[in-house]
Amino acid sequence: MKPFYITTPIYYVTDAPHIGHLYTSLAADIMSRYHRLKGDNVWFLTGTDEHGQKIQKKAKENNETPQELADRVVERYRKAWTRYEITYNDFIRTTEERHKTVVVSFVDKLMKSGDIYLGGYEGWYCIPDEAYWTEAQLKDGKCPDCGRPVEWLTEESYFFKMSAYEKRLLEHIEKNPGFIQPESRKNEVLGFIRQGLRDISVSRTTITWGIPMPKDPKATKEHKIYVWFDALSNYVSALGYPNDSKYTTFWPEAIHIVGKDILRFHAVYWPTFLMALGLPLPKRIVAHGWLTDGARKISKSLGNVVDPFALADTYGVDGVRYFLFREFVFGLDGEYTQDLVYARINADLANDYGNCVSRTCSMIIKYLGTSPVEISKALSAHSELKRVAQAAVAAVDGEMEQFAYHKALENLWRAVGEANRHIESNAPWTLAKSQKPEDRERLIEVLVHCREALRMVSVILLAFIPESARKALDTLGGALPDGLAAPVQFAQWGAAGSTMLVKTPTPLFPRLEVPKTK
Ligand code: ME8
Question: Which of 7, 22, 49 for a ligand 1 pocket mutation test, highest count of atoms within 8 Å of Cβ?
């Protein structure tokens, strides 16, 4: 079995998840499910980022400890992922011992090799404001916020020698064209590196909520490890680095899915940390765009968040899963509006797909009887629908390899559209009235082809809309047999054999009532 390792960012526990977090986690879930269908050995990691100033500050505002805040919010994430049937294999929290030990061992190693060194952070400081300013930010040599005098401050800090890895990182990106995806984002990263990498501060003396730096007699203050160094290490610590076989199996296959906001941390900081540690780099880093509202990123701080639970209540889990990956191009920003969700669900899911499954099964029951029928002959006949369905399913793998979820779905819907046309143009209800044997044969052929095309499409849809696809397959008499090594092969024409135990359909996606806007 081919190992396949996919990760989401670990989310901050400052607040409950919103539609943006959901989007990334669903992307990883769909990809995981698709690779399981292919028979790969999948490891899907998600989790939460629980240290740092943001969390410390938020906990203080709430009058709770950072750990209490983390323990409370992590449950919101877990519940949301359960609601959306997100099939992660592991959930890491950075406050867990298994993680902290690895982070400390990494820092220790880099201190010994000299890649992390003690230095000073220098800058202007406004004591009343506790704020650092650069020379350029000062106003007439004074604090730009309060106008009071500033002092030159040197704060002790540990630095990571990122500058030493600039050339190697550039070479790696150039030699491995698929390392950063999509291409446009890769160019942004290259542009950033070419401006020159500077050593970065990897410790903080001003915060208490973090992993302590290893003891160092040279340090005059207590340092906590910089939250990004801590957080990025989760992808390795969660695999049980260094001794667990999960690490050796999965790490070389790692694919990180991230939002474009945190690409630099993943495509510059993380690879240089790994180079310094002498560890292999992840295979791919795939950055997606933002879901926006009025062209502004949807985020808690902008106050325009959309709650995953409310979405599921209104549109259904599979409605949301489908919408997000059919409507938007992974990699580009996507403007979220309610109207788009209603339109997609009603047109594509209720009308095109759900209705086609329903009418096909009803007609099979009505005209062909529910007993198994001899269908091999019908299956071997040619039709445009057969051609389109086979082409659609064959194209999916290439699209998924490119993380082009929308194209995979677009292809599958071509087959669904063709099935609907096949029904309209052959009018099975007319054929059923005829007494001619060739019309009877044609009737069987038309319905068998529709059922087969829908069955094939539904096998792939198990990755996208799992519950509905399972229900559709069951109705179509094509439930996935247990124990298939690579279930995706069941999406081949004729793979379900020549019996067809179709069931009375119930609506897969009831049409949603679109609220009237004023
Ligand atoms: O950055 N559209 O956590 P975070 C699409 N802890 N995706 C969005 C989004 C939006 N409007 N808003 C958020 C952190 N996301 C760090 C990560 S990883 C080692 C540490 C998604 O809670 C997107 O994946 O701020 C983005 O990168 C992530 O949530 C940021 O989550």
Answer: 49
